[in-house]
From TrEMBL:
Record protein name field: CoA:oxalate CoA-transferase
GO molecular function, one term: CoA-transferase activity
Keyword Oxidoreductase appears in the UniProt entry: no
Alphabetized Pfam families for the sequence: CoA_transf_3
Stored SUPFAM superfamilies: CoA-transferase family III (CaiB/BaiF)
Domain of life: Bacteria
Keywords: Transferase
InterPro entries listed in its UniProt record: CoA-transferase_III_domain, CoA-Trfase_fam_III, CoA-Trfase_III_dom3_sf, CoA-Trfase_III_dom_1_sf
């Protein structure tokens, strides 16, 4: 199933948040035309590299067509406007105001195509006192409350292990674009404003519960949950294991499994709140049991008792698991230089099928000539633009 078949996306984005968004749209069947500057997307020059190809670029630009256009030239901007007029969606992640100064801002694009949806992804949004600030993921993690909530108990703030701000903005951009497409017949085009800061603030439900409802400050709790106990990582005889108990029934089952059924009736552990208040004492009791058994033995016992548990796996271990293999979490796509390119792709299934792009990331300018030909330019016009350095092509495409 390709739910977005027939939808054309003009992709003016670079690096991560924007390309992550448009790669998902490509998986879902949209035609994605990626406009790149002569030097290409910045991610083409960021490692790790394989045979000269950036892994990060390959992962986040699957299924797209690459057209090289110099947007600093008047003729280049005219081409971008012409492509936008024939598109359903334009996605850009320039710093606010830059697209307007180039003459390809939302107002100019929608003037040529009132039904157009323009999605603008930025660090802090199109308006507001911080709108002009440069934003990398770690900057937004720091300002949003994510770093303050993350880290060892009593330790310093810590960023998450992935660029969650970029990924979150990419995902919310997909949501906004799909909603705008759904409502276009009734409401016309739209300018969708996606800010990394807004997205990360929206993705802190536990912190909001503490801040706004419990009147408690958000504190770092390491690998345990701030509200539920026992819910987190515990030492085993050969490593660590996750135990996630929610509710008294599961807690009673854990106590029985530990050989201490009476703990379930202990007033200190009679409710989730009480268990959290007495977490150090309860942890010591639980680890008195878990440290006598291997991770493998604990997993088997806990699962047999219906208690949620997991080993802490590396990505390699996760992908090698029978479940990941059965679900096809990573697939190989054909690539112009590498031969094949492993990608995770979008994870949603429709009637049991997971849509995925048919091709890997494009060569820089590999689709310039066919895209401009489809736009109505003659071979002589394209040759003139190439000679003038307004566009570039790459025969590897």
């Amino acid at each position: 199933m390709k739910p977005l078949s027939g939808i054309r996306i003009l992709d003016l984005t670079r690096v991560l948040a924007g390309p992550f968004c448009t790669a998902i749209l490509a998986d879902l069947g949209a035609e994605v035309i990626k406009l790149e500057p002569p030097q290409g997307d910045d991610y083409r020059h960021v490692g790790p590299f394989l045979s000269g190809e950036s892994a990060l670029f390959a992962l986040n630009n699957r299924g797209k067509q690459s057209v090289v256009v110099d947007l600093k030239a008047e003729e280049g901007r005219a081409l971008a406007l012409k492509l936008a007029a024939k598109s359903d969606v334009v996605v850009e992640n320039f710093r606010p105001g830059v697209a307007d100064r180039l003459g390809i801002g939302a107002a100019a694009l929608r003037a040529a195509n009132p039904a157009l949806i323009v999605a603008s992804i930025s660090g802090f949004g199109q308006q507001g006192p911080a709108a002009d600030l440069p934003a990398y993921d770690v900057v937004v993690q720091a300002m949003s409350g994510w770093m303050d909530a993350t880290g060892e108990e009593g330790g310093t703030p810590m960023r998450t292990g992935e660029a969650i701000g970029d990924v979150a903005a990419g995902l919310y951009a997909v949501i906004g674009i799909l909603a705008a497409l759904l409502g276009r017949s009734a409401h016309g085009g739209a300018h969708v404003d996606i800010a990394m800061m807004d997205c990360l603030v929206a993705m802190l439900p536990t912190s909001h519960a503490l801040q706004h409802y419990a009147g408690q400050p958000v504190t770092r709790t390491g690998n345990r949950h701030p509200l539920s106990t026992p819910f987190g990582a515990f030492r085993s005889a050969d490593g660590q294991i996750i135990i996630a108990v929610l509710g008294h029934r599961q807690f009673a089952g854990l106590c029985a499994l530990m050989g201490q059924p009476g703990l379930a009736a202990d007033p200190r552990f009679a409710s989730d709140e009480a268990r959290t208040a007495h977490e150090p004492v309860l942890r010591a009791l639980i680890e008195g049991w878990t440290t006598t058994l291997t991770t493998e033995a604990l997993i088997a016992s806990l699962r047999a008792a219906g208690i949620p548990t997991a080993p802490i796996q590396t990505l390699a271990q996760a992908l090698q698991s029978p479940h990941a293999q059965a679900r096809g979490l990573v697939a190989d796509l054909p690539h112009h230089r590498l031969g094949h390119s492993p990608v995770a792709g979008q994870p949603i299934r429709f009637d049991g099928q997971k849509p995925l792009s048919a091709t890997g990331a494009p060569a820089l300018g590999g689709d310039t000539r066919p895209v401009l030909t489809a736009l109505g330019l003659t071979p002589d016009q394209i040759a003139g633009l190439i000679a003038a350095g307004i566009v570039q092509e790459n025969d590897l495409g």
